[in-house]
Amino acid sequence: MPSEAINQLVRALDERKSDGSIRALTTPSGLIDFCSNDYLGFSRSHELKENIRAEIDRLPDMQIGSTGSRLISGNSKYCEELENKVAEFHHAEAGLIFNSGYDANLGIFSSIPQRTDTVLYDQLVHASIRDGIRLSYARSFTFRHNDLDDLERRLNQATGNVYVAVESVYSMDGDSAPLREIAQLCSSHGANLVVDEAHATGVFGENGEGRVVELDVQDAVFARVHTFGKALGAHGAVILGSETLRSYLVNFARPFIYTTALPFHSLAAIHYAYKLLISDYTPCRRLRHLISIFNSQLDEPLKSNFIGSDSAIRSLLKPGNRNVKKVANDIRSGGFDVRPIMHPTVPAGSERIRICIHAFNTEEEIGNLIHTLNTALT
Questions:
Q1: By the 8 A CB rule, do 101 and 171 touch?
Q2: Strands across the sheet with 223-227, in order?
Q3: Considering 38, 83, 117, 167, which one is annotated as catalytic?
Q4: Any catalytic annotation for residue 325?
Q5: Among this protein's residues, is 7 annotated catalytic?
Q6: What's the Cα-to-Cα distance from 204 to each of 168, 208, 242, 244, 291, rounded to whole Å?
Q7: To the nearest whole number, what is the mean pLDDT of the chain?
Q8: Is 311 assigned a catalytic role?
Q9: I need a labelling partner for 313 at 20 to 30 A (CA). Which of 38, 205, 240, 291 fits?
Q10: Does residue 167 carry a catalytic annotation?
């Protein structure tokens, strides 16, 4: 007989099935990729793969596994030198590598804000930021998405040390935060700005440094999170900030302290992804060109269904879980790999097809995708 705990799981799954929000894992489809976060195509780069292999051969004494957390046996000179190089690239004083962007956000928000402090966060920030805030003892409040007036209202009410959490480019809408204005507000209220650059890394800035450096507001930012698993085609993340911030996280961030460190292979992948980014900015220029092509080919009424964005992320609104799944399946039948983003990942009524443009896509593929979108929506 199933236990009551199993029955509880079954009921929860049945509820998801009944409202059309059940999730399931899928394997690579062979369709044209318009869904992954591999914006620059680095994950499929033969040059990057060869450089990683060469680095492993060059340093045969490096172990396959990290063997422990960085505070025990998992640290290395290679990792610390990599952190310094990454921090320098992003115009930061110091950096600390985490195993993922999720771990990095948990590390910041679960350890830094204290019981008498306040965290203000944009209503559309990453789930990892929200989960980190939940693990904190600080008070927390949302402000309306990219709404400076609402943020200022919240800042006027906040107490203790105040932390403001935003994404430079939002993962589901693809739009950008008004970082200059937010930084000015935080400065005038003595608040600490934390910027998640996950979807701007490698895409924005003169050499892919991100939105913060592009807008020259790095000195006004308390902490930044750059992830390596999207445009850089690797894995892991780094928190950038002051040396004091780095030391604090080493001592108090539980996702760092109690996690086995990234292995050498992952560190080598990060190292050479940055070298590839620095040595050849052609993929980013190509990506920006294709984003422009995509935007220019959107005609009404299709254009009115898209959320405004100048990033690689374009979201086509199609409310209702069943509706958005049907449209996604129709587009996939046309040969294009897109995915429906359903409630509860996004608020009910804002379900959408999330389209990601990549440097390896072609102008012909973009034209055919837009034609397929028009057909699927008629």
A1: no
A2: 94-98, 237-241, 223-227, 192-196, 162-167, 118-122, 139-143
A3: 167
A4: no
A5: no
A6: 10, 5, 22, 27, 13
A7: 96
A8: no
A9: 240
A10: yes
Where exactly are the structural domains of the chain?
A: 31-44+281-376, 62-279
pLDDT for 27 equals: 86
**Correct CATH for 31-44+281-376 of 3.90.1150.10, 3.40.630.30, 3.60.110.10, 3.30.470.20:** 3.90.1150.10
pLDDT value of position 1: 54
Among this protein's residues, is 230 annotated catalytic?
Answer: yes
**Angle formed by the axes of helices 363-376 and 282-297, nearest 10°:** 30
**Domain 62-279 -> CATH class:** alpha beta
Over residues 86-141, the pLDDT tens digits come to 999 999 999 999 999 999 999 999 999 999 999 999 999 999 999 999 999 999 99
* pLDDT per residue as tens digits for the range 360-372: 999 999 999 999 9
List the structure tokens of 114: 């204290």
Copy the structure tokens of residue 325. 């799944």
For residue 276, the Cα-to-chain-centroid distance in whole angstroms is: 20
Strand ranges across the sheet with 313-317: 313-317, 352-356, 339-341
189 is catalytic: no
299 neighbors 98 (Cβ within 8 angstroms): no
Q: Active site residue: 45, 105, 171, 192, which one?
A: 171
Question: Residue 295: its pLDDT value, please?
Answer: 95
Q: At residue 320, does pLDDT exceed 90? A: yes
Give me the percent of the chain exceeding a pLDDT of 70: 99
Told to judge if 304 belongs to the known catalytic residues of this protein, a careful annotator would answer: no
